[in-house]
């Protein structure tokens, strides 16, 4: 049963008879899911007729989660309320200094009639690290997950009943300090919105993409913030992505350093499956140690699965464009693919580098590894197999 309480402050009588607003159970450390208040819409929006047709981020559900923080009082009471516009002073720090972080995760309607998320605590951990890096308030990760799960439960009718679509979950935190000072924000807003999304690969098969790799541009640098999911990492990539599209490529391959290391593909981690110098099959991905790449949830899942399978060597290290070109000449590149929540895996078929096009034989090679991962992960996400990575939010979904 939902507890229906307005998301207003609670009024208590003061000694002099007037009313003072107070925030019960406030803690500086975290908000709590057990304090959630609800203001539910009386005008639910029509759901998209065919969620499989929903473009990414084009539809939003009826409700949002919202919780405020300020330096003096700590976290406020979390609230689930109708999705609404924000009203902020034009000097607010998020607008001027991009004090903002976000996460991207999904809920799925499973074959065994549950609504489940995929490894959501990994997103909570990453969000916590992004908050620390942004000098925004931290929180109890489990409490945030419980609040988000509750939001998904409230809007459960929006989770597409399809194994080709899902509900994208976008937790966000912004600095709300109305000041132009370049300084830590003394107030913040954490919110979460939900959006039904269609399949990344419309045809159902893994469609390969082509990449523009221009060493003129980098996405992140050592000592920078590329390992955190901050909006400020994404804005400056858009003109390069636009340039790639104008030249007929779907994504940017982000290189780094004098030896032009492969770091990420667009907003995905990058994996190369090749035959190494010892003649063994090896799956290689950029390592996390210099903070150049986002520690993807799908990336770490692939690494863990590969170790369990024990079929080929797995390495986190440095991959350079020279490695790729040399191994291509020797027919030792088997597959290159990107990984991320949006697509799970995304095969690469062509790279333009220094004015030359390199064909990558990912599709000719199956793609064996990319397909195996795609199947295994989507089987877990859509509940075709039982797995500890599937986090149930609603059991026995009402039909
Ligand atoms: C820059 C970047 N790299 C990698 C990823 C993949 O991360 P995940 O597997 O957690 O979706 C994302 C996706 O959000 C991203 O934005």
From TrEMBL:
SUPFAM superfamilies: D-aminoacid aminotransferase-like PLP-dependent enzymes. It comes from the Eukaryota. Pfam families: Aminotran_4. Its EC number is 2.6.1.42. It catalyses: L-valine + 2-oxoglutarate = 3-methyl-2-oxobutanoate + L-glutamate; L-leucine + 2-oxoglutarate = 4-methyl-2-oxopentanoate + L-glutamate; L-isoleucine + 2-oxoglutarate = (S)-3-methyl-2-oxopentanoate + L-glutamate. Keywords: Amino-acid biosynthesis, Aminotransferase, Branched-chain amino acid biosynthesis, Pyridoxal phosphate, Transferase. Its cofactor is pyridoxal 5'-phosphate. PANTHER family: BRANCHED-CHAIN-AMINO-ACID AMINOTRANSFERASE, SUBGROUP IIII AMINOTRANSFERASE. Belongs to the class-IV pyridoxal-phosphate-dependent aminotransferase family. NCBIfam families: ilvE_II, PRK13357.1. This is Branched-chain-amino-acid aminotransferase. It comes from Clavelina lepadiformis (Light-bulb sea squirt).
